[in-house]
Structures are given as C-alpha cells and as structure tokens.
Fold:
Amino acid sequence: MTNKKRRRRPPPRTGGPSTSAGRGRTTSDGPAASRTAPSRAGAKPARREHKEEARRAREAARKRAARTAALRRVLTISVVGVLAIGLFTFLNRAASARPIPKYAVDAAKAAGCSGVDSPASDAPGGLHLASGASYSYSQHPPTSGYHDPVPLPIPSDHVFTAPVQETHAVHNIEHGEIFIYYRDQGDGALPPAVVAALKKVVGLPSNKNTLLAPYRDFSDPKTALAFTAWNKLQTCPGTITAAQATSVAYGFEYAFACTGNAPEPKASGNDC
Structure:
C-alpha cells in the first residue's frame, strides 16, 4: 500500500481580515469596517447643522413676513386716515362767495339801494366777549367784530318778532348766516307788504340760514332795510317795493349765505 503525501495547508495569514465561516463577511475590525463607521458618525452632525440652518431660515422668513404685514397695516391705516380727513374736509368746506346775480343788482339799483359794502378793512373771526357782555359797535347794524360766545337760536320760521341782541347776531353771521334787518317803527318804517314778502323769502327751505328781524338803530335815518353777512352790508330805502326787496334778498342770500365769506360757516351745526 503506497503512502500518499499530504499536501500541507499554508499557514493562515496573520493581521488580515477574518471571515465568518461560510459567509464570506469581514469582521468589524477589518478594513471595510474602518471605511464605513467614520462616514456614518460624521453624517449626524451634518444633518443637524442642515436642520438648524433650515430652522433659522424659516424663522428669518417668518420675521420678514411679520414686519411686512405690520408695515402694510401702518400704510393702510395712514392712507385711510388721509382719505378720511380729505373726505371730511371736502364735505365740510364752504363754497366761496359768489357774485350777486344781475337780476338782484338791477332790482337794487331801481330801488335806490346801495351797493354791497365791506365796512371793515380787516374782519378777523373768533373775537369773543365774556358771556353776556355788551359791546359798542361803530356801525349799525354791525357785520363783524367782537361778539358773544353764544349765537342766537334760530326760530322755526326764521323770523324774529322783536329786535335781537347785536352781540349775539354778529356771532350768527360769523357762522355764515344772513340777517335781514328792517325798520319797524316811525315814518320811515318798511311797508308791511314788503315785510310780508321778506318773511316768505326767509321761510323757504332753500333759505334755512337767512333770518329776518326788526331793527331801530340804523346809522342812516333814510335806511329802512339792510342785508348783512360777515363784513358785507347792503342798505335800501323805505320806498323799495315788495318785488324789488324779494329780488335783492334772493341775490344777497345766493352770494353770501353759508359761504367762505364767513370765518366759521360750519361751526354752529346749522344747515350750511
């Protein structure tokens, strides 16, 4: 029986990777493990940093959006405020004084009335006396100057049956109202027919701020009728007819009632 030589297996290499039996996988202390483990460990800080950057970006975007929204609100409120002020001003502004219509000018000339004068070279508004104080005006009826802080209450028919206190009446015309004064006593008194015609004029809905009152202290003894607005005066004699007085009244009211001719045409809560 012949003896066969056994092949000697080569000795195992030391220091290299060992494999699991039958699986061909390297162990954790081999080269493959040394390559994968560090990369996994380094990925976690990178992901955390990426998340933190994304969070900061979102926070910055949120703050920018909040600032933009706040600025938009401020701008909106400002614009609305400006528009509201402009609308209020527009609705409360008074029209400028207008020229007296030709028909009224012609009627005044035919009746022997004066033109429309501006008695004071300077007529500032807001000159208030102490409540109830008296004042001596240089011109009668007065059309401007110091006056009582309280205007006269307006009668429902806009007709005063007795002379009014001048200091109060001046305050009324400062608010854009018109006072028509007539002489009610003596030989030069205005005829009753003319007075009746003027009562109809001031009682019209379109003349809500035209008032009629008797007067006894005209500066000119020939004057029986006077139309007054703020620093505006037109006088007529007692010979004026009802038709002429009506035309002059309409023209004067059209030119000056509730207009910017008065310092405070919107101040009293009247119908200006």
